[in-house]
Fold:
Amino acid sequence: MNIENSILILIDVQGKLAQLMYDRERLFANLQIVVKGARILGVPILWCQQNPRALGPTISELTGLLEGISPIDKMSFSCCGDMAFQDALLKTGRNQAVLCGIESHVCVYQTAADLRIKGYDVAVVADAVSSRTAENKQTALSRMQSEGVCVTSTEMLLFEWMRTATHAQFKEVARLVR
Structure:
């Protein structure tokens, strides 16, 4: 993954469902780090919400970090099932999709699978996705990896994007994880 070709896709971290996630405190902390890092490094973000009328809005821990970005509301589990998402993704001109959010075994998995079919390089940030159970999260990560999705971590991703300690934003990004 590199800064020039990556896009971060934030999937469905909403309402009461988000509160039911396995290891949610760690999930929320890592999601904030990934979003902050992407913003610092200039990586575009697509922010999706699954049926917000029923599930509620994105959690406040994240919405404050997404100023200037409008959410894409969807009904399909895969983000790719929504034309507004597909249009926004195409407009970025990028071919590396980095996924984070919930739930690993439903919306994250289906989005990853569809993006692979469409020819995108896909990475999933393992410590910035979750499901209601650890088993569903692990099953989703294993299946995604077997289908050609790169499994990464929050810190690994940020340092991969920067490539070197001489990167102009190195100190600012490094502070996020230390």
